[in-house]
Queue: 2 jobs
Job 1
Amino acid sequence: MPWVDACGTDDIDAEDLIRFDHGGRTYAIYRSSDDDYFCTDGKCTHEDVHLEDGLVMAYEIECPKHNATFDYRTGEALRAPACVNLNTYKVKVEAGRVLIEI
Amino acid sequence: MAGIVIVGAGECGTRAAFAARDAGYDGAILLIAGEAGLPYDRTKLTKPIVPGEAPFGGLSALRKPICHANQLDAAGITLLAGTPVGKVNSDARQVTLTDGRVFGYDRLLLAVGATARRLACRGGDRALGFRTIDHAQTVFAKARGKVVIAGAGLIGLELAAVLSGQGAEVTLVEAEALPLSRTVPAGLAERLMARHQAEGVRLLCGSEIEKVTPGFVTLSNGKRLPAPSLIAAIGVVPNTTLGAMAGAMIDNGICVDAQMRTSVPGIYAAGDCANVTLPNGQRVRSETWRCAMAQGIVAGQVMAGQTASYDDPNWLWSDQYDLTVQVVGQVADRPDALRQLPEAELQFSIDSDGALIGVAGIGRAAAMTKDIILAQRLIRAGAKVTARALSDPAIDLKSLLRTQGDV
Ligand SMILES: Cc1cc2nc3c(=O)[nH]c(=O)nc-3n(C[C@H](O)[C@H](O)[C@H](O)COP(=O)(O)OP(=O)(O)OC[C@H]3O[C@@H](n4cnc5c(N)ncnc54)[C@H](O)[C@@H]3O)c2cc1C
Ligand code: FES
């Protein structure tokens, strides 16, 4: 799978996320408070709601709609109403750019 | 077969079943649903319709299952749908369905929800109720042209938005001076009201329906309105019959502690049917989705032998047109702090000790949810806040949470 240049490392605040759309699909890219980067599917597995307006705290993303939480490092669904995990994608940082393998 | 028996497969009962299994319970779990089919999300029945998906005739879009059959199978949960439980015998630890089938239980959860309140006035039984998918089917098939809705609470308002969006001419009759007056601050209620009026919904506040005759309603001020379709959305009554039969204490719901235990050993209750005493002694009977889910999860965990306790602040949301309303905790009519965001407004309530106790928001969902989630965490943490910090949109609420230490 190809590596895609998604954004600059500074385009995401620490402990936050941005939305990234590519090839007709949508993703969420996270920056943790210790400046690690992660990528998951953009939409919650409960309903068709984007996680971009959700809240990132530590390694968790809380869905803005019904507050399901996921570990964005592994995609694991941590709290109801979601019970299906998020897909995750590999991420690497090169020369100030965040690349994701999709 | 004993094991855990759950009566009622709404949000609460269904979540409880999965939570018990997730908590490691390895006995039988039987989920008995009075309504036919898979458990479905009741809140979807009145939510804004995706363009192109009209509720009229497109009812399958309204039926959003809470879980699918393969998820129930995978969790080893037996769903028995379509026949209600008619009796509970707490001495024999048995429930009996209305068709005579008997099931034993080790632990029983009553997650039987609530029933739409009937209009008490003369002829009031002509009004349609709105609680179940069957009700939705009836209402969406009939309610065209002129529609009168009794009650401008959450359901009445959402229904008014959906029906007027479908071309119906909606009149809302509300006894109080403002819609949703028991749940949202006056300032937000006024904004909601203005929005409904702008969409062509007529709101008659401060009036009550005194009499219903075929095709008409008569109001307390003597006015007569044509009402070929009449819907009662005047609140709900908790279902307590089975709880009472089991010998559980009843007081505006089935009384339970924060572990969802009733006064009868082995019997639990949660969700809209339960009146919960929180760890701080406060009593709440919630009527919201979020609370039903959270209480169901606690009940499931406790029945599975885990330690769990319910202490969530009340949490309600409603979608009307493209507006979302969210309320967490206790809000007063006069807010202590206002936070203006580009597309949303938040109102905060602070108690005399300086602790945040409630937030209410109105606006575009995406604009406010992050702050609502943070406020909910601040409320849970009993965080001390200042009106100045809350009112300044440049101050990230996350930073307030940080200063509270470990939450
Ligand atoms: C149209 C509508 C819109 C709503 N929108 C919102 C919203 O936007 N936000 C929000 O927070 N809340 C909303 N609510 C409220 C929310 O849906 C309820 O708080 C929640 O569904 C309560 O869940 P529950 O499982 O406790 O009860 P219920 O959902 O009432 O489920 C109880 C189930 O038990 C079954 N039952 C009862 N007696 C028996 C018996 N003897 N045997 C077997 N089964 C039995 C019932 O048939 C029912 O299916 C809405 C409610 C309605 C009706
Ligand atoms: S859409 Fe994410 S929790 Fe419901």
Note: Chain B touches chain A through 18 residues (CB under 8 Å).
Job 2
Amino acid sequence: MALKDLFTKNQTKKKKYATIPTEAAKQDVPEGIMTKCPSCKKIMYTKELLKNHKVCLHCQHHFQMNAGERIESFIDEGSFEEINENMISKNPLQFPGYLEKLEKDRQKSKLNEAIVTGIGTVGGCKVVVAIMDASFRMGSMGSVVGEKITLAIEKADELSVPFIIFTASGGARMQEGAISLMQMAKTSVALKKFSNNGGLIISIMTHPTTGGVSASFASLGDYNFAEPEALIGFAGRRVIEQSIREKLPEDFQTAEFLLKHGQLDAIISRLDLAEKIANILEIHQPGGEITW
Amino acid sequence: MVGELEFERPLIELRKKIAELKEFTLNTDVDLSSEISKLEARLVKLEQDIYENIKPWDRVQIARHPNRPTTLDYISYLFEDFFECHGDRRFADDEAIVGGIAKFKGLPVTVIGHQRGKDTKENIRRNFGMPHPEGYRKAIRLMHQADKFKRPIICFIDTKGAYPGKAAEERGQSEAIAHNLFEMAGLKVPVICVVIGEGGSGGALGLGVGNRIYMLENSTYSVISPEGAAAILWKDAAQAKRAAETMRITAPDLKELGIIDEIIPEIKGGAHRDVKKQAEQIEHTLLATLKELLKLSPEELVEDRYNRFRTIGEFDFINEYAGVK
Ligand SMILES: [Zn+2]
């Protein structure tokens, strides 16, 4: 068999594979004209779903959003200016295959890392915003994520404007070992400094927010909010079930579970999010002279 | 009428009689207008007599009236853009206390208060307005937040008391209340407390260390419920009425004792007759107090609150030491 033939054959095989998507892939097709809701199984126009901030038109299920979609949905139109967009990860532990995985995710997500940071306005109020993107390395936090968050906090401090973070992360990035772990501390000490200077911190936890991210900046807002039904927790469900030898309740580690257990100020639907956050920002605007 | 009160019964009967006579004249040719106006004059006098001589026990009944306006009722009339914040970030969200951020005539404030339910279902959810430790911990969390962002704090007090229960003790009911007293002392923003219903002991005081403390005319504030006091003093909870009179728990009593700053007048018959009007009365007081307190520096506010409580207490000195030498 000629080398050329082999190539063609492979290509055909690949193509064939791509035309038979798995059940899971079918439920999660973001491209294409129609999208099926993984929660209520109803099918709707993708265009309409996007227009509805990726909230199911039938059951209000909140689809995961990438950073670009979030900016479009949340930040005042045309006001967003990205900062530190060119920062990329190194391979500090010489972890086998890490750089290749990063490169693959760069291609796939069109992002340099698992977070986008920048300056914009919400309801006319200037803010610094950091948006994690779970499509890049599951939104895990290594040096770059930690550094970009820290720089964003410092920018908010410098400009004396609120800092808003959208979290979506599987936790610390294993391939950077203890350096990843220390990003939890780095972002936290930066937040404390900002807070001591009177800075307003708003955390909005989206699906999923777990591990080292939930155990650091995600939980350190003056206001901690979450989107409906978002998975939020420290340890994974299976790890807990194995360690306590018990089946956990259905709603365990959902936003609703956290609200009941005192961890959230409120759950806010994405459809109301920009308006409600704008309202809170307005209440925190400095200098409104009262003339009674 | 729903929730009619014992002491109002003569009024209710007289009103009924007048209504009957009016009905009668409509259906017959008999002219009873002079009788009716006589009775109406009597009604005015009787109302005056009754409402100007409200006994302590009657006030207890008004304070416990099922339709008495709650914290959330007043919030809806007094503030704009109220956003409720939940949770103590420790254990749970205790719905016996509500709190959040809002604007009062354009000024950002933090509002916190005990919250009773309007019906059985809501009362179960809110534990009849009797908080667990997590309620007090939510409250102090929101007060610290107000302190950070330099917002005045307004507290509405309305509870039979902190919940006496096993779980509450396990999680440190005493520590939670004590911590609030301690931390409220250090707040660098104005703190205004208004007792709107029952001020039940430490459970009330846990939201009560303010620069100014006001009481609605028919609210109560006491170290123990009249029933509890009667049970201890006379081994008979049925003597609650007597205890209510002895213990000096009404707004006029507390004003006289120098524990509260002012009484906020209630409309005739109690706040439940007209929430909107009652809210207006509270609004006057809040406005005047904020104008006054906002002139103080953070240090002056802390000092003012310190003095407010430091001076409470009654004692004498005698010249000779009578004890063991
Ligand atoms: Zn759906």
Note: The longest helix of chain A spans residues 177-196.
